[in-house]
Specification:
Blueprint: H1 12-24, H2 28-31, E1 39-42, E2 50-54, E3 60-64, H3 67-93, H4 97-101, H5 105-117, H6 119-127, H7 132-149, H8 159-164, H9 178-191, H10 196-209, H11 212-218, H12 279-283, H13 288-295, H14 297-310, E4 325-331, E5 342-350, E6 357-364, E7 374-380, E8 388-391, E9 394-400, E10 406-414, E11 417-420, E12 423-426, E13 428-434, E14 442-448, E15 485-492, H15 500-508, H16 513-522, E16 528-534, E17 539-542, E18 548-550, E19 565-566, E20 574-577, E21 585-587, E22 593-595, H17 618-633, H18 639-646, H19 652-663, H20 669-677, H21 690-707, H22 721-730, H23 751-769, H24 779-782, E23 784-785, H25 799-805, E24 810-811, E25 835-837, E26 839-844, E27 852-855, H26 872-876, E28 881-882, H27 887-892, E29 896-901
Parallel strand pairs: 1-29, 3-6, 10-19
Antiparallel strand pairs: 2-3, 2-29, 4-5, 4-22, 5-25, 5-26, 6-7, 7-8, 8-9, 9-16, 10-11, 10-15, 11-12, 13-14, 16-17, 17-21, 18-20, 23-24, 26-27, 27-28
Pfam families: Penicil_amidase
Protein name: Penicillin acylase family protein
Region (Disordered): 226-291
Length: 902
């Protein structure tokens, strides 16, 4: 449950009275904020009329003569639909949340961490790096937002201000600024930051288990799951289906695999991105130094302080769990009914109300060099343009690449200095003051090293860090002197200014592979997989992103980014970045399709080292299987086939475990009731399936019995793809030490005893949760989408407000590491959805008007609007809506037309 959703808004009686008034007067207060979507309205700054056409779902298509008018109108429309969400986001990304919601501990902690990151300062630096055109678009967008909010009171902008105003002073929102838009990109980069959890967990697991070989079991190498990377074995030249064949880089034959060079540091070691070559160095070290360091309570305390601080990031932008990922794939026209490509994408993110995406069409009345936009898709309220979608020539989808772009460094800090080599150098410091509505200001000192800010400082007001080190690593020149304290710093590519905003507009106007490559070179963070298809028949893949290079350092701590490592040793510093021209890419592979679903990008030993920790590829392998089976059958793909794959519920977990579970003999008929359901089960997590519900309970109990006795609570298995790979590696080892329950004295459990316990416990859980009769069970009774409003939907908020703000729960199919990735957290004790497809789209490159889309809630952020949650039923049932694109198709479904005039 979201930390900020637990905000205790204040005096419950007052707030309940506010909402009671809303109920009594027919939601009058909520409806006061609803915008006018028809008629005519003047907007300052426009050079000509702009038409805003909305369909049955309220999705706006905007038509303008000039690009600046287009984005000025988009800013106006975003403010109409979602201004409170925008305002909430900018308070979060600036570390000013307590200014909005008042003296709440969670808000102040979040502000401390975001101020420490310095997202706002980085965004301010980025503005000057952008092209003049992008700066002009951002200013026009801000002008449009400000034109809407200028003459409206807070209560006319969002009912949330009325609710907050019952307990805190609500000021008129300040004008929107282009930097407000750029700062939100930092939040999205954080949500897709890849392996930082694994990096911290390795160190914490080592301190708990004291056995590097057992730590290695908990973090299997990608190849152990047997699933393929995005770019597989090289195809033969000439095997592609389009005009271009094979790969586009030197030394490749179809995969786009290339050697990497650094800027100024020569050639990358090309040791293989799956990390198998460094497995022994990363998790099998037995060095006395690293043994001592990671056993040391002082370091464990610093790591724990870091985890606590990072947990303060608002969950709306910090899910980052094993369910966060995405599916995308593209099929060549040689296998489609139309003869042109089909592209599918469904990004998996934390789900809330309103959903993160705002659907929009942006159309220049006449496409030209001065007004080059004719695009539609999904964007962020608060940022101009389309982030994922298509234009008249090209469609593109994004999934998280999982490149390792964050590193934790163990620093030695003494006073206001830190250790670098043989010297103690001054920490960089800056002072921040956090304003608190209705409370006293909070002062914060942010300290940073050459690597980045000290995260272990954030919630430690005394800046004492951990306890003093115990001389496990002696200083070569100051032996016997004070060695200082441990602290943990974070180096992250997004804390350096970049040009991702330029990339968004470059995607919107891309026409071919070369345009995609140029856009990708600007797409610094987050590191994403790009799949694309063109209306003239090409399909392709491009890896963008700023990916750091790390030297191979012999020694006790792996230098590949998989462990926190000594900040005082400069050999562990980043040595540069993979050059954009050396990032993996492919066009028109011989297979005729490309699947990018967070798995490894390249085969081990190929190309630049991008990461070690990947999604283990169970979703991507299932998608590949479904595509290959249909290709082999000779039946050609349609858009409906792509949507069906997006909703596939088959479980790799069940495929691995059911056979073993059925071998367990349960003597008691009551206990065997659930097990019998598995015999004829089709292995799908359908919401109506009793077997699926029982199996989920077995999996939860299996993880609990196997791992919770030895791992700290912060590492209890959530049950995602990594834990499936871990259990997969243990099944044939019936006496693996993890099977033994350390809480049972003088008893050593084996695999079958734990499996038996899991089966029995699951049966009892189902009886308690639903019914004694298995005929009453269904997965959807346990597995539900329970969306909460981003600020006013969780515990601590009066129930009347939650009822008003939160959409009704929906039972859903799917689960963790399933193509229909409605993830849940096995460590939480709940089966509720934690993250999932934030939208689904299928683009038909033969007929763009035949494309389909859906988002998890709706385009509006106003709870009183019909479009607040008018897509949730279709989303939950795996259905989509028609996605009109051409002017004729848009006008045919238009229900409201608003004309913006100068």
């Amino acid at each position: 449950m979201s930390r900020l959703r637990k905000l205790a808004i204040g005096t419950a009686v007052v707030v309940v009275l506010v909402l009671a008034a809303v109920t009594t007067f027919g939601w009058a207060i909520g409806r006061r904020a609803l915008p006018s979507t028809s008629g005519e309205v003047q907007v300052e700054g426009l050079t000509a009329d702009v038409r805003v056409l909305r369909d049955q779902q309220g999705v706006p298509h905007i038509y303008a003569d000039q690009a600046t008018d287009l984005f000025r109108a988009q800013g106006y429309v975003h403010a109409q639909d979602r201004f409170f969400e925008m305002d909430f986001r900018r308070h979060v990304t600036a570390g000013r949340l307590a200014e909005l919601v008042g003296e709440q501990e969670s808000a102040i902690s979040a502000d401390k961490l975001i101020r420490t990151f310095g997202w706002r300062q980085v965004a301010e630096q980025e503005l000057d790096l952008l092209t003049p055109e992008t700066q002009e678009y951002l200013r026009a967008y801000a002008d449009g937002v400000n034109a809407y909010i200028a003459d409206r009171s807070p209560s006319e902008l969002g009912v949330e201000y009325t609710v907050l105003g019952a307990t805190v002073e609500v000021e008129s929102p300040e004008p929107w600024d282009p930097v407000d838009s750029l700062a939100w990109l930092k939040a999205m980069a954080w949500d897709l930051r890849s392996n930082y959890n694994d990096e911290l967990d390795r160190a914490i697991a080592y301190s708990a288990l004291d056995d590097p070989s057992r730590v290695a079991q908990l973090f299997p190498d990608y190849g152990t799951a047997g699933n393929r990377p995005i770019l597989t074995a090289p195809a033969q030249p000439g095997a592609g289906s389009g005009e271009q064949t094979g790969a586009e880089g030197p030394g490749t034959d179809g995969t786009g695999t290339e050697g990497a060079t650094t800027e100024g540091t020569g050639t990358d070691d090309a040791s293989g991105e799956t990390g198998t070559e460094q497995a022994s160095a990363g998790t099998g070290t037995t060095s006395d130094t690293v043994n001592g360091m990671f056993r040391d309570k002082a370091l464990r305390d610093a790591l724990a302080a870091t985890q606590k601080a990072l947990a303060a990031v608002p969950e709306q932008i910090a899910r980052g769990d094993e369910g966060t990922g995405s599916n995308s794939w593209v099929v060549s026209g040689q296998y489609t009914e139309s003869g042109r490509p089909l592209l599918a994408n469904d990004p998996h993110l934390s789900l809330q109300a309103p959903g993160i995406w705002h659907q929009v069409g942006l159309h220049c009345n006449t496409v030209s060099d001065s007004c080059p936009f004719d695009t539609a898709g999904f964007g962020f309220s608060g940022f101009p343009g389309v982030v994922i979608g298509h234009n008249a020539d090209l469609a593109w989808g994004l999934t998280n690449m999982g490149a390792d772009v964050t590193d934790f460094f163990i620093e030695r800090v003494r006073g206001d200095t830190y250790k670098r080599g043989d010297q103690w150098i001054d920490l960089e410091t800056r002072e921040e003051t956090i304003r608190v509505s209705g409370g006293s200001p909070v002062d914060l000192t942010v300290r940073s090293t050459v690597h980045g800010p000290l995260i272990s400082d954030v919630l430690d007001d005394d800046k004492a860090g951990a306890a003093s080190m115990d001389a496990l690593v002696q200083s070569p020149t100051q032996e016997g002197t004070e060695l200082g304290d441990y602290a943990i710093s974070l180096q992250w590519t997004a804390l350096e200014p970049g040009r991702t905003a330029d990339a968004v507009f470059a995607f919107d106007t891309a026409r071919n592979a070369e345009d995609i490559r140029e856009a990708a070179a600007l797409f610094d963070v987050p590191a994403q997989n790009i799949v694309y298809a063109t209306t003239d028949g090409h399909i392709g893949y491009q890896a963008p992103g700023r990916v750091p290079l790390r030297a191979d350092v012999p020694g006790p701590v792996s230098s590949d980014g998989s462990w926190p490592r000594p900040g005082w040793d400069a050999r562990y510093d980043w040595t540069g970045y993979v050059k954009p021209e050396n990032m993996p890419r492919a066009q028109d592979p011989g297979e005729g399709f490309i699947v990018a679903a967070n798995q490894a990008v390249l085969p081990g030993g190929s190309g630049p080292r991008l990461a070690r920790d990947w999604d283990y590829g169970f979703r991507s392998e299932r998608i590949r299987t479904l595509l290959t089976e249909q290709i082999d059958s000779g039946r050609r793909f349609t858009a409906e086939d792509m949507a069906a794959i997006q909703n596939d519920d088959w479980s790799a977990f069940a495929d691995l475990l059911v056979g073993v579970l059925l071998e367990i003999e349960l003597e008691d008929d009551y206990d065997a009731d659930g097990q019998r359901l598995l015999r004829d089960w089709d292995r799908t997590m359908d919401k109506d399936s009793a077997a699926a519900a029982y199996f989920a309970a077995v999996w939860q109990n299996l993880l609990r019995a196997t791992f919770q006795d030895e791992l700290p609570e912060s590492m209890w298995p959530a049950g995602g793809d990594r834990w499936l790979a871990v259990v997969q590696g243990m099944l044939d080892d019936e006496n693996n030490a993890f099977w033994d329950d350390k809480t049972t004295v003088s008893v050593r459990e084996s695999r079958n005893e734990i499996l038996t316990q899991a089966l029995k416990s699951a049966r009892q859980d189902m009886t308690v949760e639903i019914s004694k009769d298995p005929g009453d069970w269904s997965w959807g009774m346990l597995h539900q989408l329970e969306l909460e409003h981003s600020a006013l939907g969780g515990e601590g908020v009066p129930s009347l407000i939650r009822t008003y703000m939160n959409p009704s729960p929906h039972p859903v199919s799917g689960g963790t590491s399933i193509v229909n990735a409605t993830s849940w957290d096995a460590a939480s004790g709940s089966y509720s959805v934690t993250s999932g497809p934030s939208m689904r789209m299928v683009v038909d490159l033969a007929d763009l008007d035949a494309s389909t889309w859906v988002t998890v809630t709706g385009v509006s952020g106003h709870p009183a609007s019909n479009h607040y949650d008018d897509q949730i039923d279709e989303w939950a049932n795996g259905e989509t809506f028609a996605w009109p694109f051409t002017r004729e198709a848009v006008e045919a479904v238009t229900e409201d037309e608003l004309t913006l005039t100068p």
